[in-house]
Amino acid sequence: MTLFPRNFHRAVAVLAVSITSLMSPAQAAEEKVLNIYNWSDYIGPDTVANFEKETGIKVRYDNFDTNEILHAKLVAGKTGYDLVVPSSNWAKIQLEGGLLMPLDKSKIPNLKNLDPNLMKQLGSMDPGNAYITPWLWGITTLGINVDKVKAAIGGPLPENAWDLIFKPEYASKLKSCGISMLDSADEVFPAAMRYVGKPPYSKNSADYQVAADMLKTIRPYVTLFSSSGYINDLAGGSLCLSLGWNGDINIAAARAKEAKNGNNIVSLVPSTGAVLFFDTMAIPADAAHPENAHKFINYILRPEVNAELTNKVFYANGVPSSAKFIKAEVAANKTVFMTAEDLAKMVPPEAVNNDIRRLRTRLFTTFKTGR
Ligand code: N2P
Questions:
Q1: Using N-to-C axis directions, what is the helix angle for 185-195 and 354-369, rounded to 10°?
Q2: CATH number of the domain residue 224 falls in
């Protein structure tokens, strides 16, 4: 008679394997590294350094400047990143495609700091707020060098600010002082679609052709496609009109002021409205350091840390209690913190399916190449 059943050793082995597979990443000690992929010009000067100091986690920080670039990486997989910052409408496609990891909310106690209205908006892309939490938000709008634009058009600004870029009569006059556009179909098309009276994220392919036809008429006057470098060009005076993001344009205004170069840069809040974006923190499904990513998310959601972002890059955030740490001149800036009346004119983003995305990209490439 043997003391152990015949298959005892196998049973032990199976048990050991199943215990290992039950272990959460929290139990397995995680290497003290965090790989972040965020938009350029989108963080405070000490945000990363303070996190590293506090946690001993070494952060590797890379930048992108369009949702298309981030999305392509996530779709290809094995990005090596632990934390990424997609806009909410892109995160929807990503989480539905299994590219993101659900959050362990027990590890993010600072979720309590988030604005319930913003979370409701994000919930339209991420039911139950399971995958994404806010980074910052704003609008895709126009930035101008006030004096150069007024001089070039020889009169007052048009009633509809979008005429400056989408109406040949204005754009042709502004070419000489430099016009830039974001290098992204997902930013230019919604604005162009609204201008031609179509839904910004229409599901009807014919609508996109109408916007493309309009864009063709102003193509000769666009001197640069840029989603990050335009900040310094606006600040330095080599551009007088940019289709860009409100915070970036405010960064340009601040840099011009600091340089005392006389360029008066203003982010417009068009009376005819603009499209909103909500950028969010998310963890790729195959992230190697999800534990550290959760720690970083929780850190960012502290009011004083969140305020440091807004103070530096001039975008609104999702943590109302950060208000007391926001600098007075930023808090007073109505192009960052829009009035309720202005905000009501702004249009929330929507996700578009693969077919429409492909069509938009094709039309955008045609537009850029000027064919
Ligand atoms: C950062 C711009 C990010 C805003 N430079 C667009 N989602």
A1: 90
A2: 3.40.190.10
